[in-house]
Design a protein that fits this description.
Shape: elongated
Number of helices: 8
Structural class: mainly alpha
Largest sheet: none
Length: 122
């Protein structure tokens, strides 16, 4: 499990850039195939899905606490356009980024938290 959580740490440290499965698996010292199967079994989603939800969760926090342009936030979150960012954000939170900013209503219950040993034990 120590190796697995090294991979989680790698993902968390690299959310601001492209994350390749080969690099994540290497951080855990597993083959890509074995790591994918293990990750999905433990976390309940793919590495890409986990990273996307974490990026969107961090983006929601930034919307609520920072004065950042949505286009900049979209690029910072790894999206190629503000439109694709807005679609993904709305799919996850049920509200657009602009609407969240206007209401300043937290959407924490839908955030993707960092996967920790405590979540695994729960």
């Amino acid at each position: 499990m120590k190796q697995f959580f090294q991979a989680i740490d790698y993902i968390e440290a690299n959310l601001d850039r492209e994350i390749l499965l080969a690099d994540v698996a290497a951080a855990a010292c597993y083959s890509e195939y074995h790591f994918c199967r293990m990750f999905r079994a433990l976390v309940g989603e793919t590495v890409a899905g986990y990273a996307r939800k974490r990026r969107l969760s961090l983006a929601a926090e930034r919307i609520l606490h920072e004065d950042v342009r949505l286009i900049d936030l979209a690029f910072d979150s790894g999206f190629e356009s503000q439109a694709s960012f807005t679609r993904a954000f709305k799919r996850m939170f049920g509200i657009t980024p602009g609407a969240l900013r206007r209401t300043s209503r937290p959407v924490r219950h839908q955030y993707r938290p960092v996967f920790t040993p405590e979540l695994l034990n729960h």
